[in-house]
Specification:
Blueprint lengths: L4 H10 L13 E6 L4 H5 L8 H7 L4 E5 L8 H14 L2 E6 L11 H21 L3 E4 L10 H25 L2 E5 L8 H11 L4 E4 L11 H9 L5 E5 L13 H10 L4 E7 L6 H15 L2
Parallel strand pairs: 1-2, 1-8, 2-3, 3-4, 4-5, 5-6, 7-8
């Protein structure tokens, strides 16, 4: 059950973030991943057009859209969305793109269709002023051996080279997130980065999307070398709504030790707090950290 804002703020005051040196001024800014409010949108309590207002109300400048939460992406709809962004002084950072086909599919024809399906989101991202779209390296094959891994990675590389070439003309980067499957193996993602080896290809490390056997801190450190975004996945399901899936300060130290600078994207996915309460707590943590 969602807690009241008063209860949430009381818990925040009772357990302030441990003191640490603030990051270099201007190195990081804060964005909000639209998935943080997916339940509100799916329940009809908000729409994609409300997203800029909700982000600004939580002191988040950047917007990380999710394509599956949009209404029909017509020219008029995009114009209305841009108007909302201007009214709230928010800016588009990226679009997370799902359900447009498997870029790692074993059939070249299926891969080509998936690449083409992503073109419209590259175009929309450019129209909104984003720097990237986030894609998936999903496949119809679940690899179980190093040789099968290599086969899937080669299929992915074929798709991502083609998609990056299209996106280059629009000034858009193509990002891969650790988003389950083979993508949650950081070594596989690093191998893909090296195979494609293009300047507009990079990663969106997510703090939470790793299986238990993966060391999250080492994994984020590996992915951060190619990062063009950073996803602060949070749950707040521990005692007093603490983050119990990983150590926030330790993870942020990993980010600071990397060369990454840019947006830290709040992506609340917990169940103990309501979505707006979870976003507020995440923003408070970042403020206490100095961002």
């Amino acid at each position: 059950m969602p807690v009241s804002r008063r209860t949430l703020l009381s818990s925040l005051a009772a357990a302030p973030f441990a003191a640490s040196a603030a990051p270099a001024p201007g190195r990081f800014k804060v964005s909000l991943a639209e998935w943080s409010i997916h339940r509100l949108i799916q329940q009809g309590k908000a729409t994609n057009l409300d997203f800029p207002r909700i982000a600004r109300e939580n002191d988040c400048e950047g917007l990380e859209f999710v394509n599956t939460l949009w209404a029909s992406p017509t020219a008029g709809y995009i114009a209305r969305l841009k108007k909302r962004m201007a009214e709230t002084n928010t800016r588009a950072v990226l679009i997370m793109v799902d359900d447009e086909g498997q870029l790692g599919h074993s059939d070249p024809a299926v891969r080509r269709k998936a690449v083409k399906n992503h073109h419209k989101w590259v175009d929309i991202a450019a129209e909104l002023g984003c720097h990237s779209i986030r894609t998936n390296m999903h496949s119809n094959v679940t690899p179980k051996t190093p040789a099968e891994n290599e086969t899937v990675l080669n299929c992915c590389a074929d798709s991502f080279r083609a998609l990056c070439e299209y996106a280059r003309e629009a000034g858009i980067s193509i990002l891969v997130e650790n988003h389950w499957g083979l993508s949650s193996d950081p070594d596989a993602v690093v191998a893909l980065m090296k195979k494609v080896n293009l300047p507009n290809f990079g990663t969106l490390p997510d703090f939470g999307n790793f299986p238990p056997e993966i060391d999250k801190y080492q994994a984020v450190a590996k992915l951060a070398a190619w990062a063009k975004g950073m996803s602060f996945k949070c749950y707040f399901e521990g005692p007093d709504f603490s983050e119990d899936k990983y150590d926030f300060a330790r993870m942020m130290k990993v980010v600071e030790d990397s060369k990454y600078s840019g947006y830290i994207g709040i992506e609340y996915e917990g169940s103990k707090l309501g979505e707006l309460e979870g976003i507020a707590r995440a923003r408070k943590l970042l403020k206490d950290y100095g961002i």
